[in-house]
Amino acid sequence: MECVVFTGLLQIVHPTKNGRVPAASTIVSIKQITGRNLEEQISVANPCILANNLNIPVYGMKNVTKRANGFKQGLLGVLRKEGAMPQSNIEQELNQISLQKLPRLDLLRRTQFETRPAVCLELARNTTRFMKTLDDSSYSPQVRAGKLYKYIMEQKTPIIADRNLLAGTKTKGVIFYPDFMATAMWPELETLSRRNKNPFDISRLDIDELATKVLPYWVDRTIEQTVRRDNGNPECLKLMERIIFFNAAKVTGLSHTVPDYATVVTEGLRWIIEMAAYKQRQLGGSPDEQQQKDFYQAVQDSLGGIIRYAQNLSKEAARQAQATADPEWRQELITMSDVCAKVPEWPAETFREALNAIWICKAALYQENMDFGLSLGRLDQILYHRFVEDMENKTISLLEAVELVGCLWLKIADHVPPMPEAGEELFGGTGSNQAITLGGVDRAGNDAVNDLTYVMLRVTELLKMRDPNVNARYHPEENSKDYLRRLCEVNINTGATPCFHNDVAVIKMLQGQKVDDSDANDYAIVGCVEPLSAGRSFGHPGAIVFNLPSVLELTLTGGKHERLRDDPDIRPPATKSFRWMKSFAEFKEAFERQLDWLIKQAVTLNNHLGRAHQAVHRTPMLSALIQGCMDQAKDVLEGGAIYNSSGIAVIGLADVVDSVTAIEKFVSFHGTGGLLSPVQMADAINANWEGPFFDGIRDKIRNAKEHFGNDTSALTKKNADWLICHLNDKFQSEENYRGGKYTVGYWSMTYHAGFGRLTGALPSGRRKGDPFASGITPVSGAVPNLTSCLNFVAGLKHEQITNGHALNLKFSPSVWEDPQMIATYLGAFFNPPLEGLQAQSNVIDRAMLLRAKEHPDDEQVRHLLVRVSGYTAYFTDLNPLMQEEVINRQEY
Predict the structure, then answer these.
(1) Are 523 and 495 in contact (CB under 8 A)?
(2) Is 393 exposed, middle or buried (CB count within 10 Å of its CB: 0-12, 13-18, 19+)?
(3) Which of 223, 234, 471, 605 is least enclosed, having the fewest CB within 10 Å?
């Protein structure tokens, strides 16, 4: 059902498949309902005229439908605000649904918690087999990728191993990606099943196959080795391998983005294949046109492989239906078979078809890139009309809709990213960070919160899983306060989710990055907290994780960092050692020199890695599902997306701001005033702030008001603005390998604990090995006043925080038991004049965290959900340092 607004009327119509508007339709006077006219006036003679009036391109009915749906949803919000329509009672109905009424979800959830992840070699085996026996040196990178993923999808085992209503799996367990990081796991194959944190089961046969047939082939063929070979083992790569300075994510894949799943639902893959074939036939024979032809061929081949996989799932479901003696499960399998025979090849016409179409495509994309931050976008918008139609037609009940969404949530959660043991010790505990975005406004800027939004919130509340990472958009002017209160209620009941984003601030930031207004309105969150225009952007916002305190260490030592002493080929700028500096200005100048050098090293490596992917790892499946690529005949790796950027996550901002401020306020460069000289500050850092003299000075520094997060400290605010401005200006002046800009954000996953463990003492009084503050959060204990913290963070320059930030708050459930209390604070934080960007909170008792740390096998706390920094994790999966960081966070 669609709607068109014209001359103050609401026309509900049912477009036919050929795009013509039927004569019969329901017309309702908006003025009669609301007492006012709408100013929008649109001709509806036919879809093409409608499209022209709406200023949107015509690619069949898809875009007309999408825009008209936005008018309908926005209008319904207007009607409810005017009191012309009663508030839906769906929330009351949803509150009556429990896991006891959903035995399937309860069983699947318990099974997932009780089953240890196991390594699956299917992808590694099939990739290696293709490259050894089916590859041809004459293939272009695009053609090779198309044939490879067609082969992988056709060979992928169609597994239906449980009672989940959605068919399709990523694999049977932990995926090994041979061209990425699998070789790093090679020395640990024998101990994977016995390691302390997050062990994986692996069979003797699989160990032998990996060690003798798979991994030897890839020793010199991974993305990292390609960079080393093609660039002469560059300084930037050796610098990353020191771990302490930065990490470049492209060594593990490119999955940090949001594909265009709306097209999968409304048009199907066959439509994309036919478009690719049509565009291919229009091209000539020049070298440039041949490259474009290769792109379109790769799209046809790889998407054809996805369709074949769906057909194999359909056959497997039919086979199992014949074999089972359970009549109820037989009927479900027959339905599953019918669904997979149709989607994702053809448009989805039911809610279940739409869900399964998205899931099969997502499972396919896991074969192309490591599952890390591959996000799903605005599912409550993409699926809303299939949901409404099924509910209106009574083909599903509300309980069945909740069950179907729960099946998708459980599919998403069924994954553990492979990580070497050293990585687990430093950075472990993270999930796949597969973000789903709910609520906010639609492309036209109208209220987009709908009944499906509340269904998805209820599923999140019931299951309490670490994935998907649920992010809630809230527009203070368009969304209701009841909606915000419900978000806070879910946060309290889960203890850690959803994450909250302010539409006003985020949209304004995206517009400042030259994203069109309607595209900015239609943003979704990627990975942790990174906003991108959904389905149109390849921002890879997790491209670089940048350790800002390492710059401070380089500055203090004059570029002679202790982790670089054994490698003369890595040469930071030779600046004066801090102990001999004569002014704060001299310190700032040296800091900027070291910072600019490290930024250049990080972006150089990212660009080397991007070009390595262009050479050996094209992504035709992802490119087919990112808008712009099909029009330009370009892979996302070549800049085919409408919006292109690469994202930086800066770690340790608060610690560096506090350190810079401590130097400015407490160090005397001229022998008078201050608490200590540059020499004494250097000695205090080398002594780890230990000893009677240093202990006293440390207490004075830490007890002063000049800390990041204190809204009464003008000095701290000045230094925070300086750093944020310099980081933004320098990164945005760099161009990535696709011709896009670099964006800067402040979120840390578990890196603030891992990098902190490797970093020495700092001028702020922080001691060696202590975790850094997470995200954009103040150092724990530095700002005990919540209002001061919110005022300070809201006052930062959001237009220069272009890759999102994570403000982590921790509330005691005994104090914050009423959702309205949290809603009141968030409302004030998001509304003018503050207009804060983002916030997230743990609502967990400290005693519960301590219990989970001491008794990790206790069933009451084994899967205790916590918000880390932009994502949720099970507390017991975190390494001890990260657990302590969560326990010791400032509690309000």
Answers:
(1) no
(2) exposed
(3) 234
